[in-house]
Design goal:
Radius of gyration: 23 Å
Structural class: mainly alpha
Strand content: under 5%
Number of strands: 0
Distance between the termini: 56 Å
């Protein structure tokens, strides 16, 4: 698709504008409370999963409640909704809606929303084009096991209680062309992350090198540190040393401003000793993407139980033996981290861990032997050459 580059002349950070929606505190508080209740429910381990299903329904309901709170004006609920939208498969389209609302909040002067976009989920502003995987999803929804093995998403889709609905949601509802137009408008209005995202999609939207360079500079002028890094790198390739030095100065200024605003990644790039504490606060506020920077058990627990990320790291932190390490891997397995399902089977068979149900090892073995062997061929050879219950 062709893109008409809008001229963006402002060099300032996003200026406060009218809020995109007044806070309805009653609706927001009620929705957040219900979301928290559902999240607690979703984090409970179900030792029948994933062999008999996954625990996404509570996550999906929590995501919808967080989005209600977001639309009612509770800004932190927007990035929480995005974080949970990709843990609960059928609510994935909410991620785009949450990013758009966070962008409006940022432009209205809410710096935490700007940080959330720059560090966690700005890429959700631009939706993907349909791909060949969509045809696989269609076939998968009808029960075609071969199609399901072609893509991780398709495999996950089929294992949902309502596979056809899950596949429809995985395809998403936002129009890619409209999302490009939206990102272009947000860039014009002063959102640096949007300018940078246009560069990230340069080949899709047919940007010339000159247009891409211009968008990088616009992102940098809007205090987007990554945009400054990209612009400085491009200047270095062109051996324009004066320009490169200027852009690196702008980059460092953007990093300092970002760190002061609570951007843990900006603090890390500055080697600022506060990076870990900043990441911990951001993680606690719902920006689970920065949780690994906090390097704390609580942060890892939040990521693991919410989305299945970093569960293996949490298991290592908890120690090699005991139910706590086992349950960390169970969280990952129940979010379809299949390598962790395999670790559990090995641990159960060697009696390193106690089986939470009498047939847990054989149930997981049966599930894993139904998956493609390409990732772990040796494991499949050991466990799948014979019936799983022998």
């Amino acid at each position: 698709m062709a893109l008409a580059t809008a001229a963006c002349t402002s060099t300032s950070a996003p200026r406060p504008r009218t809020s995109p929606g007044a806070l309805d505190s009653r609706i927001a508080a009620s929705s957040v409370a219900e979301a928290d209740r559902l999240m607690t429910q979703a984090r409970r381990l179900d030792y029948r999963a994933p062999a008999e299903g996954v625990r996404t329904e509570a996550l999906e309901a929590a995501t919808r409640k967080l989005m209600e709170a977001c639309l009612a004006g509770e800004r932190s609920a927007c990035w929480r909704a995005h974080a949970t939208s990709f843990a609960g498969v059928t609510s994935a389209p909410i991620g785009h809606q949450a990013a758009v609302r966070a962008a409006e909040n940022c432009l209205a002067g809410d710096r935490p929303s700007c940080v959330a976009l720059e560090t966690a989920f700005g890429n959700a502003l631009i939706t993907r084009k349909p791909t060949v995987a969509d045809a696989e999803l269609d076939a998968c929804a009808l029960g075609d096991q071969v199609a399901c093995t072609q893509s991780f998403n398709a495999t996950e889709c089929l294992l949902q209680p309502r596979p056809s609905e899950s596949c429809d949601a995985l395809r998403g509802t936002a129009d890619p062309e409209k999302s490009i137009a939206l990102a272009t408008d947000l860039c014009r209005r002063g959102l640096g992350a949007a300018c940078r995202l246009l560069v990230a999609n340069a080949s899709e939207i047919h940007l010339s090198d000159a247009q891409a360079a211009d968008y990088e500079r616009q992102a940098c002028r809007r205090h987007d540190g990554i945009g400054c890094e990209l612009a400085a790198g491009r200047a270095g390739w062109a051996t324009d040393r004066d320009d490169e030095a200027y852009l690196k100065t702008q980059r460092d200024q953007a990093r300092r401003a970002g760190c002061a605003d609570g951007d843990a990644y900006a603090c890390q790039r500055l080697d600022d000793p506060s990076a870990e504490a900043v990441a911990g606060r951001a993680c606690q506020a719902g920006l689970i993407d920065v949780c690994p920077l906090a390097n704390a058990a609580r942060a890892l627990e939040q990521m693991c139980s919410t989305s299945g990320d970093n569960c293996d790291e949490l298991a290592k932190l908890r120690g090699p033996a005991g139910d706590a390490a086992r349950d960390a891997l169970e969280h990952g397995c129940q979010f379809f981290r299949f390598d962790q399902c395999m670790q559990l089977v090995d641990g159960y068979e060697s009696h390193e861990w106690h089986e939470p149900t009498p047939t847990r090892a054989s149930d997981l073995t049966r599930l894993m032997c139904s998956q493609p062997a390409s990732d772990q061929p040796e494991w499949h050879e050991r466990h799948c050459a014979k019936p799983a219950d022998e």
